[in-house]
Design a protein that fits this description.
Strand order of the largest sheet of chain A: 1-2-3
Number of strands of chain A: 8
Order of helices and strands of chain B: EHHHHEHEHEHEHEEEHHEEHEHHEHH
CATH topology of the largest domain in chain A: Sufe protein. Chain: A
Number of helices of chain B: 15
Pfam families (chain B): Aminotran_5
Structural class of chain A: alpha+beta
CATH architecture of the largest domain in chain A: Alpha-Beta Complex
Helix content of chain A: 40-55%
Helix content of chain B: 25-40%
Number of helices of chain A: 12
Radius of gyration of chain A: 32 Å
Largest sheet of chain B: 7 strands, mixed
Oligomer: heterodimer
Catalytic activity (chain B): (sulfur carrier)-H + L-cysteine = (sulfur carrier)-SH + L-alanine
Cofactor (chain B): pyridoxal 5'-phosphate
CATH class of the largest domain in chain A: Alpha Beta
CATH class of the largest domain in chain B: Alpha Beta
Largest sheet of chain A: 3 strands, antiparallel
Distance between the termini of chain B: 40 Å
Shape of chain B: globular
Function (chain B): Catalyzes the removal of elemental sulfur atoms from cysteine to produce alanine. Seems to participate in the biosynthesis of the nitrogenase metalloclusters by providing the inorganic sulfur required for the Fe-S core formation.
Largest interface: A-B, 46 and 39 residues
Shape of chain A: elongated
EC number (chain B): 2.8.1.7
Chain lengths: ~325, ~400
């Protein structure tokens, strides 16, 4: 929030001239009849996507040359806001002259970029990005009709953020690689959630199958689980370094050395010691201990005995251990 | 031609109101709390303004009408005040309101829910009206406050305030009404309606923006929202915006004087506009025509999405409003549109036209022409009007 956000303007002010012109005068609005398709010696494809009750609905017509799979004519009808109509218009235009396989590669990002007046300024405000998503989906629907396949077959990956076209696999990978901990970080890295925001968490204007908050939580949980497994496996094989151990493993490792090398000596003198805590104080690991029995109050607890404990632990566990009696 | 048909959002300041306000900027600019002639010189007009406000809503001289910055502040003062007085310090922990209130009410209630308060949001019926018996059914022993709007901003539907007031009185529960959309459109009588608190904003009835009022019935205690000086009897601190207060008072005077005009001439123009739109096939008045403010009509035009309709109207100089999600910055449909529930298409095809006494016959004729042309153009583009809407899971 800053000065520019304090007086919120009309979303219409953020529409590009292209959006305005295409809304006022769409060039590819209309339909292709069976007669017209025959005239072109082409196959007529009619695809519907969306519904009025959802706020957006579009019907796409293609006349496709079956010999070349080339889209000869492309028209649309659209129920929706200004940006939905403008997106449908540019989408229909982008299809013309392309083969069906080429058309399927048109994304909502392509549609939005084609509506820009200049390459660096978005054609629509962020919350309107979703209006071009429908244009993308209806192309897949039309191609599926033409090829007689399911439209899902064109989507190899599960898309979580439709506006920025970010897949589930990409999100998981980015979270892992960069050790991301917040949704804001995910948005910074991928742009997912930066536009209409519906994919961030439930309650947005569109219901989603999966949300960024869940993906983050699940991936973080998977990462923690894997970390534990790695630690457990390494521990079992005896190859785990102290810095990779969990807290419990560190305590166990230290306790084992204490039991074997330190405590027998202390017990012989009627004393003992216990571990209170281990704190990471990089590069050191501070081991807080308490002397028990005869050791408690013994003068050498802070000199010779302490030195002996510390040097054994440094030698057998980790050279950065510091022992601090309380 | 420019035609403003969004008077439920805000209204033009009546030039008479403006003239009454004008001296308080550069001539009578004294602080009303100062002892000297500059300050005291503001008092006569402030008292006159109060007289108009008191008589305008039939408040008793023993009641309080606190001048605040807008209806939102007024509503926050009531709900948070009751929270502090009755909920934090007592055994009561429950507020009743409706699903179709202005966000000033619902967002404040949501905030209090986060503080542990129990809130019931009552649904409206198929006509968008809250039925009084519903309130009765939900009052509990620990209900501290009932807050129900007098008239709905989207549909103009009038709620049974008098009956709800009686129910609250019998149950010993405080009753607040947001009358922001009622003042200047229908008679508002706080005594007849058994109101304990009432809120309104001047800019909805041809007064200035940035000033509103909170009516508090005699004897009802309320903790102020703003602490500071002793202005407004200690119930709302801060130097009073004298010009705005005077403006609101005179706007109230004129609003009351024009109630008959509102009920006849404004209604006639609204009905003319509505009838002309309803001549277009597959159009319907959302919430029905009965029992609503005389200036408002919310119409669903099948196959025409709300924002695209507003766009075409705006291109031709006509300003209206829609509760469609696509026209709002946060892409959330107006809850009033969603509350109708049974027909989700209405949420996307509703356009609200709200008139005022400043609209003329010529303007309405022009608007009708623009609306019909816009519907023709947009239905020609529309897929859902040309074909039966496909069944599809929303969310794409």
């Amino acid at each position: 929030m800053a000065k520019n956000d304090l007086v919120s303007g009309s979303i219409w002010d953020e529409y590009s001239n292209q959006v305005i012109n295409r809304m006022n005068n769409p060039q590819h609005q209309g339909e292709i009849t069976e007669e017209r398709a025959k005239e072109l010696n082409a196959k007529l494809i009619v695809a519907d996507f969306g519904a009025e009750s959802c706020g957006d609905a579009v019907r796409l017509y293609w006349a496709v040359d079956e010999a070349t799979d080339k889209i000869l004519e492309s028209k649309f009808k659209s129920f929706g806001c200004g940006t939905a109509i403008a997106s449908s218009d540019v989408m229909a235009e982008l299809c013309v002259g392309k083969t069906v396989d080429e058309a399927v590669k048109i994304t909502n990002i392509d549609v939005e970029r084609a509506l820009r007046d200049n390459p660096d300024t978005p054609a629509v405000p962020p919350q309107k990005m979703h209006c071009s998503v429908m244009a993308y989906d209806v192309i897949k629907k039309a191609a599926a009709e033409y090829k007689g396949v399911d439209m899902e077959s064109f989507e190899e990956e599960q898309i979580v953020c439709e506006c920025a076209r970010v897949s589930l696999a990409t999100l998981k990978e980015v979270i892992r690689l960069n050790d991301l901990k917040t949704v804001e970080e995910i948005t910074d890295y991928t742009k997912a959630g930066a536009f209409c925001k519906s994919c961030i968490k439930p309650g947005g204007h569109e219901e989603k199958e999966i949300y960024l908050v869940d993906i983050l939580a699940d991936t973080r949980a998977e990462m923690d689980q894997e970390k534990l497994k790695v630690a457990a496996d390494a521990s079992a094989s005896g190859t785990l370094s102290f810095d990779k151990m969990t807290l419990v493993q560190r305590i166990k490792a230290i306790d084992t050395v204490l039991d074997e090398d330190i405590r027998p000596m202390l017990v012989m003198d009627g004393g003992n010691m216990e571990i209170i805590d281990i704190k990471e104080n990089i590069p050191h690991y501070d081991l807080y201990i308490r002397y028990l029995g005869a050791c408690s109050g013994c003068a050498s607890g802070s000199t010779g005995t302490l030195y002996a404990i510390e040097s054994v632990l440094r030698q057998k566990v980790d050279e950065n251990i510091r022992v601090l009696p309380i | 031609m420019e035609v403003y048909l969004d008077n439920n959002a805000t209204t033009i300041v009546d030039p008479i109101v403006y003239e009454e306000m004008r001296p308080f900027f550069c001539e009578k600019y004294g602080n009303p709390n100062s002892l000297h002639r500059f300050g005291a010189g503001t008092h006569p007009k402030m008292m006159e303004a109060l007289d108009y406000l008191y008589s305008g809503i039939n408040a008793s001289d023993d009641d309080d009408i606190i001048i605040v910055s807008n209806a939102t502040e007024s509503i926050n003062t009531v709900i948070k005040g009751v929270w502090i007085d009755q909920i934090l310090n007592g055994n009561k922990n429950h507020i009743i309101t409706s699903e179709v209130e202005h966000p000033a009410v619902t967002a404040t209630c949501k905030f209090l829910e986060s503080q542990g308060v129990s809130v019931t949001y009552l649904p409206v019926n198929e006509n968008g009206v809250l039925e009084a018996h519903t309130v009765k059914d939900f009052i509990r022993d620990d209900t501290a406050l009932v807050s129900i709007m007098w008239a709905n901003n989207e549909t103009g539907k009038l709620f049974p305030i008098k009956e709800i007031g009686e129910i609250c009185k019998e149950a010993g529960v405080l009753f607040h009404s947001d009358a922001t959309q009622a003042i200047g459109k229908v008679p508002v009588d706080v005594q007849e309606a058994n109101i304990d608190f009432m809120s309104f904003s001047a800019h909805k009835f041809h007064g200035p923006k940035g000033v509103g009022a909170l009516y508090i019935k005699k004897g009802i205690k309320i903790t102020p929202l703003l602490h500071g000086g002793e202005q407004m009897g200690g119930k709302r601190a801060g130097t009073v915006d004298v010009a705005s207060m005077v403006g609101m008072g005179f706007a109230m005077k004129l609003a009351v004087e024009n109630l008959e005009f509102e009920a006849t001439e404004v209604k006639r123009l609204r009905d003319k506009l509505e009838a002309a739109i309803l001549e277009i096939p597959e159009t319907v008045v959302i919430g029905g025509k009965e029992n609503r403010t005389p200036n408002t009509t919310l119409i669903s035009i099948r196959g025409v999405e709300g924002e695209s309709m507003l766009w075409d109207l705006n291109q031709n100089g006509v300003g209206a409003s829609t509760g469609s999600a696509c026209a709002s910055e946060d892409l959330e449909a107006n809850p009033v549109m969603n509350a109708f529930g049974s027909d989700s298409e209405l949420a996307h095809t509703g356009v609200r036209f709200s008139l005022s006494r400043f609209n003329t016959e010529e303007q309405i004729d022009y608007a009708i022409d623009v609306i019909k042309k816009a519907v023709t153009r947009l239905r020609n583009i529309s897929s859902s009007y040309a074909y039966a809407p496909s069944s599809h899971k929303c969310g794409l």
